[in-house]
Every structure is written in structure tokens, then in C-alpha cells.
Design a protein that fits this description.
It comes from Flavobacterium lacisediminis. By secondary structure, the chain is of the alpha+beta class. The protein is built from three helices and four strands, in the order αβαββαβ. It has helices at residues 3-19, 36-45, 75-85; strands at 24-33, 52-57, 63-72, 92-93. It has a four-stranded antiparallel sheet. Helix 1 (3-19) packs antiparallel against helix 3.
Length: 94
């Protein structure tokens, strides 16, 4: 993980720790190429967590936005999930 990404996660953890009581509902938002297998990988990462997952394809159909609302135990769990899905090709976290 590069320094810029590491710094981002440190700041995110601080903000989540200071602004939210845990466990708490967290909303993940991703944009990715409209590849069925990649979208399935994201959905699988949140399997058995009681997550509510919605997808919306772009007008051109080239990209899909994926929103995932799920109860997370701590800021570190939120970050761990971002890191877990970060290796999926073309995924962008918002």
C-alpha cells in the first residue's frame, strides 16, 4: 500500500472514530466497470453480513455504481473491507 493510500486510511479511521458510535451503519459506494464477475466479487465480500446492496448501471452501460449499507463493528472493520475489495479490477471507492 502506498503512502498516500495509507494516510487516507489513517485519516478515515480518525474521522470515523470521532464522529460515530460503534457498531454503526456504514454506506460504502463504489464505481466500477460493468463486469458481472467483478460486481459479484464485491457482493461476495459483504455476504452473510446483512448488507443491503443496490446497483445502478450508467446510461452507456460501461460502468456500474454499487452502494452497500451494512452494520460495521468498528472503524477498523470499515477500513479492512475497503482494503479487501481494493484488489478488484477497476473498482473506485467514493
Amino acid at each position: 500500500m502506498d503512502k498516500k493510500t495509507e494516510d487516507f486510511y489513517v485519516r478515515l479511521k480518525e474521522e470515523l472514530t470521532n464522529s460515530t458510535l460503534w457498531p454503526s451503519e456504514y454506506l460504502y459506494k463504489f464505481i466500477m466497470p460493468s463486469d458481472v464477475h467483478s460486481i459479484a466479487k464485491v457482493e461476495a465480500a459483504f455476504n452473510d453480513m446483512g448488507a443491503v446492496i443496490t446497483t445502478q448501471q450508467s446510461k452507456t452501460g460501461k460502468f456500474t455504481s454499487v452502494s452497500i449499507s451494512v452494520t460495521m463493528a468498528s472503524p477498523q472493520n470499515v477500513i479492512d473491507k475497503y482494503i479487501e475489495v481494493s484488489d478488484i479490477e477497476g473498482i473506485i471507492s467514493l
